[in-house]
From TrEMBL:
It comes from Ardenticatena maritima. Keywords: Repeat, TPR repeat. SMART domains: TPR. Pfam families: TPR_16 (PF13432), TPR_2 (PF07719). The keyword Repeat applies. The lineage of its organism: Bacteria, Bacillati, Chloroflexota, Ardenticatenia, Ardenticatenales. TPR repeats lie at residues 206-239. This is Uncharacterized protein. It comes from the Bacteria.
């Protein structure tokens, strides 16, 4: 999404570890904000979903959003918004014309810098785990924050804890940190098991085909890996990592 916006001439910022005051500051500065959030159309049927925030009302305690599923001018209570948003480590996307790039950076402040943003994410996740040690999403966000700040062993530990506590069955359709962390730690069988579990629920998850191929490569199943990378590329022909991996296993 952000890459497409930049290709057509806009500036885009993808952030994590946002909070409600930041959303309000962006909206007050006339920057609509896309948030990546959990969505529960039916019990035990949660899925990833994007919502476009276009305003807020402190008197009512709601954000105002346009929603592809529920329609325009949806009123989202602050607490409910945050509870669903945190499943994706409070990821947000802001797209703006280039002439407003400086204004956007001014609102974001230190969070416009990736290293600062991930340090903030780590601190936010650590605080969440301390406050609620049985919260699977807090541990998952801690795993992702540790991964992005270079702590592979710590990321694996946090992801393990999140999985023991229990995650929604579609969680790894959208977030791939556990694949990356377990692979980096040499836990290839775990990568394979997670990919297989995903692919039993849906066979059009190109990231799962890719990570299964990576695990198979590491485990010596080159033919199987090649088939997985080819499947990933059929689903997304522009998948650069899968293309590189396929070239690697196809080179004599």
């Amino acid at each position: 999404m952000a890459a497409y916006a930049e290709r057509v001439g806009f500036v885009a910022h993808v952030g994590v570890a946002g909070d409600l005051p930041l959303l309000k500051r962006l909206l007050a500065a006339q920057f609509p904000v896309i948030i990546e959030t959990w969505f529960l159309p039916e019990p035990d049927d949660g899925m990833g979903h994007y919502r476009l925030l276009i305003g807020y009302d402190d008197a009512e305690g709601v954000f105002i959003a346009n929603d592809s599923y529920n329609g325009p001018n949806l009123r989202l209570p602050y607490a409910e918004t945050d509870a669903l948003w945190r499943v994706f480590n409070r990821t947000y996307v802001v797209v703006a014309p280039p002439e407003r790039a400086d204004a956007l950076r001014a609102v974001l402040g230190p969070l416009s810098d990736s290293a600062n943003m991930w340090a903030h994410s780590l601190a936010q996740a650590e605080a969440a785990v301390t406050a609620a040690p049985d919260d699977a999403f807090a541990w998952f966000n801690l795993g992702t924050s540790r991964l992005r700040t270079g702590d592979i062993a710590g990321a694996v530990e946090a992801y393990d804890r999140a999985r023991v506590l229990g995650l929604p069955w579609r969680m790894l359709w959208y977030q791939f940190g556990p694949f990356e962390a377990y692979y980096a730690a040499g836990r290839y069988e775990d990568v394979l098991a997670l990919a297989d579990a995903n692919l039993k629920t849906s066979n059009d998850l190109e990231e799962s085909w890719y990570w299964r191929g990576m695990a198979r490569t590491a485990l010596g199943d080159i033919d199987g890996a090649r088939a997985d990378f080819e499947r990933a590329l059929r689903l997304r022909p522009t998948y650069h990592e899968a293309e590189q991996a396929l070239q690697h296993v196809s080179t004599p």
